[in-house]
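quick one, 394 residues, struct below
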Amino acid sequence: MTYRLYYTDAYTLTFDARVRSLDATGTRVVLDRTAFYPTSGGQPFDTGTLNGARVVDVIDDDEHGDIVHVLADAWPGTIGDAVTGTVDEARRRDHREQHTAQHLLSAIAADRFGWETVSVHFGADRSLIEFAVADITPEQCASLEQHADMVARAPRAVTVGFEDAASALGLRKPPTREGEIRIVTIDGVDRSACGGTHVRSTAELLPIVLRGTERLRGRVRIGFLAGQRAMARAALDAQLLAAISQQLTCAPAEVPDAIVRLTVRNGELENERRRLRTQLASVEARALWETAHIGSDGTRTVRVAQHALPLEEVKPLVAALVTLGGVRVCATSESPLGVLLAVSSDIPLDCGRALRDALVAVGGRGGGNAAQAQGTVPTVDALVDVVARLGFAT
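---
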């Protein structure tokens, strides 16, 4: 069994130990003692080095009570080697801050709003707490954030102790294990059974910032940042805002209004573009219709090939063509690969059936109705095949 130094001191980053076992590849090392935290309880594993060898994963072998250190390369020594381990300081500090902030937020949410924490996730960009509640209002989020900030500024001591699960009192959640359990206490705020790494004082958590909510399966997730991660994100947000305000040639506080004006203007321009596209399509359609090949049955055949534009861009042209009557139209695009078949109302052809038959033959998909159908194909060669099957020259 590996002795876990992080259980009693989450600030120990350098330690001495001995190799107790190695796997056949030499990349999975078990020590007699370690400060490396394994992935557990939503908290990611530590990284660092063992005698300079990079530790890229840390696994909790719960069955044997061992901590397995996964190395980037095979261990060059043997069992019994003396080892100096070094845990990455920035990653450990970040995990301490995010995990303790989660305890604080979960405790306040339970006390003030009655929200039960269902699960937690500590991600690279933000951490998440999932609450067993159907909805959370912006006002409740603001209250939770403000109260967490107030409590953290007190500040409150964060301590670790060990008690028997059967007699441990005042826990936010009943323990899931029997026997001796590790309890993390935020003085006067929370007592939780937890094996993670934590700060010594809530002052280390400041600032605590909530970063939005999302609904999932009848529950709500709240994103948050704490400590140096929150400060780094605030600095980045300030840089981004400064860059945006410079591009918009306005003060940072004026950015929201400037974006609204741009959005409105963009909508106006898009409407104008569509109007002009429709006008242009009518002119182009007339030219294509008049020069189209006319078959023995009097039907005109028009082939429209797009290379860099999607089919959506050519639909106004197709619509203008079929209104002229007596015409079959096949439009294709190579970005993405697609085909559209349409006929005017006086042509006895079921586009949906005709295109489906052609697509099935080449492994494509699509469908439509008698007047118009659209589909996709896997390759350019398949597109050429479909066009030929529909009776259009490529």
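The chain has seven helices and 21 strands.
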